[in-house]
Structure formats: C-alpha cells, structure tokens
Amino acid sequence: MCMTDVHNDAMEMEDFDTVLSPDIEFSGTLSFDKPLLIQGKVSGEINATSLLMVAEEAVVEANIKASKVIILGTVKGHVVAAEKVEVAITGKLTGNVTAPEVTMETGCYFSGRCIMNEKKVF
88: Cβ–Cβ under 8 A, 6 or more apart, which residues? Predict the structure, then answer.
C-alpha cells in the first residue's frame, strides 16, 4: 500500500457513460460494463467490469467489485478491484480493499484491511 499523492487521470463528466446525479438514491444491485460516476447515494452491491468513480459528495454503502475504483467521497463496504483502487484526500473508505495496486493519498481516511494480490480479470 502506498500512502502518497493519488495521480488519477483528469476525469471529466463526459468521460462517463452513466452519471448518478446528486439527487439520486439507489438501493439494490448495480451492474455495469462502462464507466460510472456516482454523485448521489447507493446502497447494496456494485458489480462492474469497468471504472467506478465515487464523487466527493457521494455516499456508497455497498460491497464493490470493479476493474478500477476511484474514491473521492464516502464508501462503506469491501472493495475488490481487478486493476487498482485509489482513495483521494477527500475519500473515506471503511472496509477491506483487495487489488493488485492500491493508492491512498495522504490525509484520506481508511479503516480496514488491505490485500494486494496479482492482477486478474473478473
């Protein structure tokens, strides 16, 4: 685990095929294959074969499986990524994280276990 600056790509809203806006609250199982930006509240389970970004104002209470996860907001649940998990300075992650690469910016909040494994595809 690397406690350093997160150098994620400059992602813009147009980079995401789907955006759950701040006024949306979703509960259940969310599955997708193209990049998703969550700005609202999600609870349940998230299964993805692509990028998931949790915006700074977002609150996610779900176990997450995705290829790459970028956390700028709050996530409560276990996170499993095939490629990478990034937690920015504004990010709060409560739960275990499993990924081949984990980056946590100095000043972020993390409470859980970190397991760095070999890269695999779901």
Answer: 6, 8, 56, 70, 71, 72, 105, 108
